[in-house]
Design goal:
- The complex is a heterodimer of chains A (189) and B (147).
- Chain A is globular and about 70 Å long.
- Chain A starts with a helix and ends with a helix.
- Chain A has 2 domains: 30 residues; 153 residues, 3-Layer(aba) Sandwich (Glutaredoxin).
- Chain A is 39% helix and 19% strand.
- In chain A, the strands form 2 sheets. Chain A has a 5-stranded mixed sheet with strand order 5-4-3-6-7. A two-stranded antiparallel ribbon of chain A has the order 1-2.
- With 189 residues, chain A is α/β, with parallel strands linked by helices.
- Chain B has 147 residues and is an alpha+beta fold.
- Chain B has a single domain, classed as Immunoglobulin-like (Sandwich).
- Chain B has 2 helices and 12 strands.
- In chain B, a hairpin with a 2-residue loop joins strand 1 and strand 2.
- The longest helix of chain B has 23 residues.
- Chain B is globular, with a radius of gyration of 23 Å.
- The chains are: A alpha/beta (189), B alpha+beta (147).
Chain lengths: 189, 147
């Protein structure tokens, strides 16, 4: 290789490395605060990300009507789930751990079960839930659709920032490492 | 060589970036999933003598749970039957649900009618299944006419 082409390769390699590192750091930096009125950031994982969350009104496991406004100022990790859904069951320990670890940072996990209230109450006791769950049946299906889940499959998880904006959407189970990554990415830690 | 070392350093920096990106990237894509009635096609119920067969066609990459099939008579309400009998499926050990069976490709549920009883005109059928990518569809309940 001639001296010139070696120099050119060296410059290209450094530029490539710097660009990749910069991109990585920018993506993982905690993103706080985010103004609601600002133009939505480019969507990372879904068309609804960056958009205000739709309204939601469902009873909790005690039958009390609840809305998202009942958790003001929180980062809401809304997990649509059901007792008949094996992937939903598998991710519950990760949500319990996240609630414990990130509660002080403003996280509130909120289940939304498409299920029978008795089955939900029983399972929440068995699994030692440390976060609440709302319950519904067909109403949950409609709510999920408004949150972008038009196929109706579970599990489905949506992260909302305290200003009520959808920040992240996940169709399918999330595990501990993924939740950890999400918390590090979005919460003001 | 210096260039080789620099490129190796670059790769070391990019590799975790790719890993972080893949962790943040959603596993499921709603656009790639079939609507439930295309994933699990209820083909109908057919009576032959004193037996009724209910058939499903299951799309590749999807499965129905054997223990989630439920059938009841819609009309006439007085009709009795035994079953449904579901053929042996693929055994699966689930961390939550224990030993269960799943069905891929196709499955047939069979009902046995009493020798001297009436035949059902319509059945209420309930079933539930999932996709291999790790999502499940809600239980489906359908009315099906017996041909």
């Amino acid at each position: 290789m001639s001296g010139f082409s070696r120099q050119a390769a060296l410059v290209a390699a450094i530029a490539f490395t710097a660009a990749a590192a910069g991109f990585w750091v920018a993506r993982l930096m905690p993103q706080t605060p985010i103004a609601v009125s600002a133009a939505p950031k480019p969507s990372v994982n879904g068309a609804l990300e960056g958009q205000p969350a739709p309204s939601l009104s469902l009873p909790d496991t005690e039958g009390k009507p609840r809305t998202l406004k009942d958790w003001p100022g929180k980062w809401l990790l809304v997990n649509f789930w059901a007792t008949w859904c094996a992937p939903c069951m598998h991710e519950i320990p990760a949500f319990i751990a996240a609630q414990t670890r990130y509660q002080a940072a403003g996280l509130q996990v909120l289940g939304v079960a498409m299920d029978d209230p008795d089955a939900v109450r029983t399972l929440m006791q068995e699994k030692h839930f440390n976060y609440p769950s709302l319950v519904g049946d067909e109403a949950v299906q409609g709510i999920m659709e408004r949150f972008g889940n038009t196929i109706g499959a579970l599990p489905y998880t949506v992260l909302l920032s305290p200003d009520g904006v959808i920040r992240y959407i996940e169709l399918g189970g999330v595990d501990g490492p993924k939740l950890e990554m999400l918390m590090q990415r979005f919460l003001p830690l | 060589m210096a260039i080789t070392r620099i490129l190796a350093l670059g790769l070391m920096l990019v590799a975790p970036a790719a890993s972080a990106e893949s962790l943040l990237k959603p596993k499921g894509d709603a656009a790639a999933l079939l609507p439930v009635d295309q994933a699990f096609v209820l083909q109908g119920a057919t009576r032959k003598g004193r037996e009724v067969a209910i058939d499903w066609a299951i799309a590749p990459g999807y499965y129905l749970y054997g223990h989630m099939f439920k059938v009841s008579v819609d009309a006439p309400a007085s009709v009795a039957f035994s079953g449904p009998v579901i053929p042996k499926g693929e055994p699966v050990k689930d961390a939550e649900f224990g030993d269960v069976e799943i069905h891929r490709g196709a499955v047939q549920a069979r009902l046995a009618l009493p020798v001297d009883g009436k035949a059902p005109r319509t059945l209420r059928v309930r079933y539930q299944g999932c996709a291999d990518i790790g999502v499940c569809y809600p239980p489906q309940t359908r009315l099906v006419a017996v041909k």
